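I am writing to request your help with a piece of structural work I have in hand. I am sending you one protein, given as its amino acid sequence and as whole-number tokens for its backbone shapes. Kindly check, if you would, that the fold set down in the tokens agrees with what the sequence suggests. You will find the record immediately after this paragraph:
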Amino acid sequence: MFLNCHSFHSLRYGTLSIDDLISQALALGTRELVLTDINTVTGVYEFKKKCEENNIRPIVGVEVRKGSELYYITIAKEFTGLSEVNKMLTSYNCNGADLPLQPELANNFIIYPLSNIPKNLRDNEYVGICEDELNLLIREEYKRLIPKMVILCPITFSTKKEYNLHRILRAIDNNTLLSKLSEKEVCKKTEYFRSPESIHKTYANYPEIITNTQMLLSQCNFDFAFGTPRNRKHYTGTKADDLKLLTRLAYAGLERRYGRNHEQAKQRIEKELKVINELNFSGYFLITWDIIRYSNSMGFMHVGRGSGANSIVAYCLGITDICPIEFDLYFERFLNLNRKSPPDFDIDWSWQERDIILDYIFNRYGKEFVAFCGTNVEFKYRSIIREVGKAFGLPKEELDELSKYPERVFRDEIVQQVQKYGKLLEKFPNQRSMHSCGIIISEEPLTNFTALEMPPKGFPIVQWDMHVAEEIGFEKFDILSQRGLGTINDTVRLLEEKRGIKVNIKDTNISKDEEKCNEFLSQGRTIGCFYIESPAMRGLLRRLKCDNYKVLVAASSIIRPGVAQSGMMREYIFRHNNPDKFEYFHKVFEEQLGDTYGIMVYQEDVIKIALHYGGVSAADGDILRRAMSGKGRSLSALQKVKDDFFASCRQQGHPEELSTEIYRQIESFAGYSFCKAHSASYAVESYQSLYLKVYYPLEFMVSVINNMGGFYRTEVYVHEARKSGGKIMNPCVNRSEQQATIYGDEIYLGFMHLEKVESRLGQLIPEERRKNGQYKSMEDFIKRIPIGIETLQILIFIGAFRFCGIPKNELLLKARVLLGDFKPERRFETLFEEPVKEFKFPELKRNIFEDAFDEIEILSFPVSCTPFDLLQTKYRGTVMANELVQYHKKQVKMLAYLISRKHVPTKRGTMYFGTWIDVKGDYFDTVHFPDCLEKFPFQGGGCYLLLGIVEVDFHFPTITITKMAKMPFIPDPRYAHDEDKKYEAQQRMKEDVSMTFRAPYPQEHEIGLPRIGFDSKLKE
């Protein structure tokens, strides 16, 4: 009887999850149900699975609306019926076509509301009659339609509270107050489940309508096979031709990568090709190769990472640059006959080039067959409070207070209502968005499975997320972007453009054995370098004295939150620094995990131990790893794997106690360990960045700045450039570009750094200069560039006309005289018909620090001096950062400038990790515990006086702060007579703030990883 059920996938309308719909239907004894969400099929696949699990017959369709107006409800006779509706909705969503008022959908039943009945009803078209509309059937125009009528009992909510929630959702969707919400925007108060018997009773006087409804339902089916591979099957057209091409490409790559006579590589390629062919994944490899081939033809850099780097075929095709033989990477971690899910290549491009790659994929494989995965953006609590509060009419000030303290109990009744309904909305989908990188390339047109939508980004998305995609047989291609590759690309281009130096950065051996690079690495001098610049990573590099590529690969893994939280990071650091203070637990650990001191740092290590100790196959070892890490394996599957492992160990003749302890260790670390191939891929890019930083530091830092940095704000990278010998220059209309640029050792900041200067203008200034020569004066500039007085003043304040040799004060007066009442559109008809008059201005003196305060106001940091120069105090600290290792367990007093701080929630409250620079420009780190922070909190960016105890942990010093105070700047000389503004500029000084939710690292005794071998343990 329920032909029109809404779930909460009817965004900002429905209030019931799929589970709620099914459980309520079950409670009423309903055995068939129709899901018809508004303009979407997001929930249909979850609906089918869960209905069948509960012995309910699933039927699906779509309620088609334009705005708040209901056009009709479509119900698919069979699965192909959805395709018809999907095509219609896609045309509406993506191509701007109108929704037809009477569509031709042969494989659907179409149910019209009374408000939208077409003149002539086709055989598959009906009129839905609601309970409150039955009294209208006495009218002749409706009475004659009874033979074409069906029961319409829409489902939108289940309780009065949920009806109110529905109204709140509608108010949010319409951006209006609840009190102003019109009736046509909300559902009827009867749209909840009732027993089929009561519905039959209501329509008892119209048995024909009941019969029509039952007959319609009986003719509908939703047959769909989950898990059937639906990605594009072949690259060439046939499986045989795909294998032939893949084999030829793999062997050509083998010769290029290894030479002609590398027997081990050849055997591995043959083994991999056999598995790839057997699992029908040749097409997937070839499509990925094709994308890489295009990228290479465009001169783009890419990084192939993730478990795909475990494949030698991927390495030989150029998809990845990690040799799996060199790193002992197991192909089974990526693909094996026991693992039916398709492979997953993660490929990074520069953020500047990714859209070009996407355009190629969509054009090459057809826009009917390619789309991004969708994702459901849920209501988050802080935003919920604002949205719900606005619907209730709360003012902004109250909403700010509420969102800051969500758990506070308020007496106000309306606030209590806001909090109550806000809680109900948590985890509700709010809007559909685009998955950040996941692309589907389908064998069939995607509209066979979903309607497509067009978000602002300009690439179509499917209406379900990656998890549903996997369930129904799609595996995504991860096309990612990052700024690190942009930095590397731009540095290489800048070197060739400015210095004529060509660097073959794609040579991945370029820096692995560079002594100077390794020295920088061991000292943590990696600011600006991809993945290894954060305070935590630089601290780890120093603790390890990391001076080679293999240790960097390990560091890239153990820094990951899960690995670090498990305690493996602490244990790895200890063993790396104390190789004589532990025993390998078993000889297999020494043989197979020697590089990581017997610790299972990588996911591949779990496979190694299962293979070489337990005697199970590598494929079964991967099943063990996946089962323990919870990746799509049931408890029964895990038990079977465990039983097989112990049975195999007994066959090997291992003692039960030893096997039990090794299994415990595998179990402890399987969920935390990290993919080695992923770390190795990241480490290559980190080294490429480091090589450029070491040998071409100025060009490298300019590129970091232009790619908008990484972990830190622009100021830190400007500081790093200055430390490397660069002279930092403010933007200049005759030297600067939109981005930062370099001439010799002079680095000119770009117009992009001036927040209130539009990018269009920032690009026009250098374009005009290249076309018609340098600007001779400010007047010449005004004549050639359409600019308003406010923007011109910003350029004057930042010193962009300093080439004129005229003081800023005088330039400002001139600008106001010239442009005071000037309108840009009248520029040539008025202002410059006659020569510009010369004015005599009084001599105006400037304080030497006025420029610095101008810079802080415009850039948020000073360029013409350091923050230390602006302090009232002349004290600069008793100890410098480079001396801290000598002060272990001693108290030090330092003056420092705050770079960044990181929150870490603990049971005792929030603690912080701070990163600072001293007056010499060197970095150091601090720890702030909750009790200290209560008395001495952070007070924003700027310079602080610090008092604390130095702790040196494996070569790396940190200061545990006991006291700190923010130090005041000198009064702003620009506002010498304005008490309110004298200290305003200091508030613009920034800091980088981040947050982690990991617990503090466990100690050795908490980890449960013994530092003695099994034999020694028995002797105890």
